[in-house]
Amino acid sequence: MSAGQDTRHEEQSEGRIAPVTAARHILVVDDDSDMRDMLATYLESEHFSVTAVANREAMSAVLAAKSVDLIILDMRLADEDGLDILRELGSPPEAPIIIVTGHRRDEADRVVGLELGADDYITKPFSLRELLARVRAVLRRSEAARQRSPGKKRTRYRFGGWELAMRTRRLTSPTGEAIPLTAGEFNLLAAFLQSPQQILSREQLLSASRVHDEEVFDRSIDVQILRLRRKLEVNPSEPKLIVTERGVGYVLATTVEVL
């Protein structure tokens, strides 16, 4: 197998009805040819179309040539930094991303990767069944988000004098100041804006913030909520917008206008 690019396309036998996932195209970016081959073979056996490449240049060529439903990106490529590639993909990226890290102690890479817009991560060594479960979960969330907000890229939300533009992820304060948001903060705020004046549990908010791992506990949501409050609230210690419902979760306690 070439160390550059290995392109695979699922073959359907004549007359066979393809499963629902057959059209889903997954792009695997990993410089390890054995890993590329293993992932491509396994995912194809689960009725996905797979393109496997070794580097940023080949990845960019694929993204320019065809539609991609999901990217699996190794953060430890031979001569390239996966975080730099994530930054180049933009926020939000064109397709949901699962990042692969080499060790459970690489927490910094995982956190930064999620902040840059990755949807999930998995650490080596991992089972192929776990990867498949994560792939399916990310694709389900992506599809559900599209169905909930078919015009999401053009949507703006106005609440309590604030305004959030979904396409650009730009948060504007009541005084007109642009307030930067991390990926986790943006996802949390979007979840609140899509369900205003409704109590959201920590489990729902964990899912919305796209932090999924057995090492992550509910209290991580409390930390993210605190950070978001510091940006939105006049007095974060006495919040008026994002209110705690003790023992249940949180609620955006204001009306929301969709523009």
Can you walk me through this structure?
With 259 residues, this protein is of the alpha/beta class. Helices cover 36% and strands 20% of the residues. It has helices at residues 33-45, 56-65, 82-89, 107-115, 128-148, 183-194, 202-208, 219-232, and strands spanning 5-7, 25-29, 49-53, 70-74, 97-101, 120-123, 156-159, 162-165, 170-172, 178-179, 200-201, 242-245, 249-252, 257-258.
Mean pLDDT: 81
**H-E string:** EEHEHEHEHEHEEEEHEHHEEE
Major sheet details: 6 strands, mixed
Contiguous low-pLDDT stretches (5 residues minimum) are 1-5, 7-22, 211-218
Helix content: 25-40%
Approximate strand percentage: 15-25%
How far is it from the N-terminal to the C-terminal residue, by CA?
51 Å
Helix tally equals: 8
Structural class: alpha/beta
Rg calc: 20 Å
Backbone shape = elongated
Q: What is the total tally of β strands?
A: 14
What's the arrangement of strands in the largest beta sheet?
1-3-2-4-5-6
